[in-house]
Amino acid sequence: MRRSTYSSASYAAFRPSYPPALFNRVLAFHNANNNRPPNSGTLVDLGCGHGLIARALAPSFASVIALDPSAGMVEQARKLTTDQPRITIRHGSAEDLLSFIPGGHGSVDCVVAGQAAHWFDFTKVWPALARAVSQHGTLAFWGYKDHVVVGQPALGPIFDRFVYGREEPVPETESMARFWEQPGREILRGSYSQIVPPDADWEAVTRITWDPDPETGAGNLGDAPEGALWQRKTLKLGELESYVRTFSAFSGWQQAYPGRKSRKDGGEGDVVDLLFDEVVATVPEWKAKGEQGWRDIEVDTVWGTVILMARRR
């Protein structure tokens, strides 16, 4: 579950969005061997965040129920989701799914979770899904992790030291490593291999995974399986910095070191400031742009991805 101090507005502003190709892949799986009329049925979006997925998929269903355990995320989703009568946004968890389904058991046609399934307690979620999802209904869980700046292999070890390193990345500054909420982060980094749909209830289980190679600056782009390379963005370095500040681990780091203010907030610099000091210093052309100019430099950024889909027996 997300930390209570998590910035819902920053998450909405700086997290990468999902491309149409991802949604098309999920819908193609859902519609295969499915005799339901187009734009019918009920979709449930678990861990809906600011409502991006619910809004994108709403035209393909008659109704959408979007749940999130964070009151801040629910508030943000409602602000961003206007004039969408098909979508109902509720404050609730995946584990309590059955409490939010007005049609009763077997009334849900599709369940999705983007960047959320690694937080679920599947001892409760699998039984709830088995009761909620109709025969031949589908689920689709997806996530992204550990970005790589394409063509810049020297940056991989820097990000790793500051984000996951056990030692201080620079003197008197702790990394973000111990602040990742576990086991969720490792489940995501493991491409959801620990999330296994029970065979008694689910069939046609499909996994599409890919990890960019940080040692070559994602030199393995050409090896990505079809449908796996869906999280690739051109970002300004300043946007990448803002994205890193949405990490739950950074939120935890801030709570542990409240006196370490960012330079933007008038302090001497926090762990993200120091991280990007090293990132910028690694590329002479970036460093030459100066303290403000480097933030406008655009970089090709790609993330490791996973999609897990299954069909209800």
UniProtKB/TrEMBL annotation:
Keyword hit for Transferase: yes
InterPro entries: Diverse_substrate_MTase, Methyltransf_11, SAM-dependent_MTases_sf
Alphabetical list of SUPFAM superfamilies matching this protein: S-adenosyl-L-methionine-dependent methyltransferases
Methyltransferase type domain mapped to chain residues: 44-141
Keywords, alphabetical: Methyltransferase, Transferase
Gene3D superfamilies: Vaccinia Virus protein VP39 (3.40.50.150)
GO biological process: methylation
MF annotations from Gene Ontology: S-adenosylmethionine-dependent methyltransferase activity
Similarity-based family: Belongs to the methyltransferase superfamily.
Protein name (Swiss-Prot/TrEMBL): S-adenosyl-L-methionine-dependent methyltransferase
Source organism of this protein record: Apodospora peruviana
